[in-house]
Amino acid sequence: MTVTITNVMAISLDGLIGRxxxxxxxxxxxxxxxxxxxxxxxxxxxxxxxAVITGANSLRASGCAWTVNNDRGVNPAWIVFTTKGxxxxxxxxxxxxxxxVLVSPFPVQEELCAASGVENWILTENSPIEVVHRLERxxxxxxxxxGGGAINKLFYENQLVxxxxxxxxPLVIGGVNSPRFVDLGLKAxxxxxxxxxxxxQDLVFLTYRVKK
Length: 212
Ligand SMILES: NC(=O)c1ccc[n+]([C@@H]2O[C@H](COP(=O)([O-])OP(=O)(O)OC[C@H]3O[C@@H](n4cnc5c(N)ncnc54)[C@H](OP(=O)(O)O)[C@@H]3O)[C@@H](O)[C@H]2O)c1
Fold this sequence. Notes:
The mean pLDDT is about 95. This protein has helices at about 25-30, 35-45, 55-60, 110-115, 125-135, 150-155, and strands at about 5-10, 50-55, 75-80, 100-105, 120, 140-145, 165-170, 190-200, 205-210. It has a 9-stranded mixed β-sheet, with helices on both faces. The chain is an alpha/beta fold. It has a single domain (about 5-210), classed as 3-Layer(aba) Sandwich (Dihydrofolate Reductase, subunit A). It is globular, with a radius of gyration of 16 Å. The longest helix has 12 residues, at about 35-45. It binds NADP nicotinamide-adenine-dinucleotide phosphate (NAP). NADP nicotinamide-adenine-dinucleotide phosphate binds next to strand 1, helix 3, strand 4 and helix 6.
C-alpha cells in the first residue's frame, strides 16, 4: 500500500506555531492566530486520514484527540510521541472510542495505559520510521503529521514527509521561546514544490510537495 505523510500546520508570518509550548488551538483562535476557516480545513484533512502523529507537548496543549469520523467510519488513530508520558488529567485518557498509541523509548504509564485502552509502542531505534512501517502494515497509510516543531523535525530529518499543508496566518509573534514550525538544528534544508494556494479572508492555505 502507499503511505502518504502530510504535515498540517498553521504558522505565523515569522514561522512560529504558538506563543509557548503548551498553547492550545482554542487559545490561538482567541487572539486571532487561526480562525474557524482553519479549524474547518483541519477537520476536512482528518476526514481523509487514517492516523495522526503528534508530539507530547502538542497533546498536553490540546488535552485530547480530535473527534472526527473519517471516510471509513472510524476516528483516525492518534499516535503520540513521548518520553515522560502524559498527565492523568488529560481528556485523552478517557477517549476510549479512539485508538490511541503512546510511542516511547521505554515503557510509560503501563497501568494507566492498560486501564484506558491506550497502546504503548516501545521503540528504541528509528522510532519515526518504525511507526510508519507499523501503520503501513495495518493499512493505515493516510497519515497526518500534526507537529509540533520537535516532532516535525524528527520526521523531516528522516525524509518521511510527502506533503505540507501550511496555513499562513496574519501575525508576527516574535516570542523568544515560542515553538517553531520545525525545531532548530535540521541537518540539511528541506525543499518543497508549491502545488496550490488559496486565500480565504486573511489566511493563505498553501499545499506543497516535499522534494526528495
Ligand atoms: N500552529 C499549529 O498548527 C500547531 C500544531 C501543533 C502544535 N502546535 C503547538 O506547538 C506547541 C508544541 O510544540 P513543541 O515543539 O513544543 O512540542 P511537540 O513536538 O508537540 O512535542 C515535543 C515532545 O515530543 C516528545 N518527543 C520528542 N522526540 C521524541 C522521540 N524521539 N521519542 C519519543 N518522544 C519524543 C517529547 O515528549 P516528553 O516531553 O514526554 O519527553 C517532547 O517533549 C504547542 O503549543 C502546540 O499547541 C501548533
